[in-house]
């Protein structure tokens, strides 16, 4: 029996062209930080430190701690000076970017159906943002963060996609086995390969697909309407 549904965020719970989001986000971040640190180019080290963090599980550190270590290494500066302005940005200005990304009309109904059925729901987005930013992004979908038992953030995660350790940590936190979980996502490399290797059920949402299947086939796949029908089948079979 599938007890938990893990949902990717970008291109899954929230329709989004990632390149457009990154352009808007990084431009906005640069504008927000410029008055605090005139003359400093901070967007590039933020991006590079994020990729450093993603590259491998953090070996006992949270992703946040890994990011800070990478940022400090790349800039040669102490993190303390930047922490306050960045936290202020994610709590105040960042949520306003949601106006550019309207929710999909079927998502709220799909989540409500699963919640009403007693399923454990997880926002399994790559944990490269702080909690405040992730909760804001969940709100962009038209959902309430309280709908989810767990939202992966860089404070509460020790690995990132596409590493199997990211998914193993979610299951360990929630006391779940792979066969009790279904990962729903639109990115083959990040959302499908590790879950399939671990033995999870998978649903490849192909309305904004990323990656190439090659010889790999998900358990199921299709658009939002097909996802809704798949969930009906799961619930009817119980």
TrEMBL record:
Q: Which UniProt keywords apply?
A: Hydrolase
Q: Which residues cross the membrane?
A: none
Return the InterPro entries for the record.
HAD-like_sf, HAD_sf, S-2-haloacid_dehalogenase
Q: What one GO molecular function would you report for this record?
A: hydrolase activity
Task: Note the Pfam families from the entry.
Answer: Hydrolase
Name assigned to this protein: HAD family hydrolase
Species source reads Luoshenia tenuis
